[in-house]
Amino acid sequence: MAAVIEQPVLEHRSTRGGRWLRRNRTTFAVVIALVEAILLVAGGINRPLALVVAVAVIVGYLWLGRQLRPQVAHDVFWIAAVSQALVALVPLLLAVLTALAVVAIAVLAVVALVVLFSRR
Asked: What's this model's pTM, rounded to 2 decimal places?
């Protein structure tokens, strides 16, 4: 059997910094989204404005970003689009968590009433 030598494949015309950015772009997107989500929840950012910016960046990436030739520019645009997509999910997540909290409180209230009325 022949031994297989595994070495990372370098992308054509990529730089060391570009490869580093590509490896870490998900981490950057999540950190940016987390910071922006905290500001959004705390009221530091206007919610409708954040949603408009998120939609604009995502549409811009889908329209232009995938066609960018310098890989670094493509990766930066990708980071912006993914972080904005994650931030756009924050109001939806807050609504779902609020609904779950209301349901949990209602269930606890019904259980408390059943326990109170069953003692008689």
From this structure: 0.67
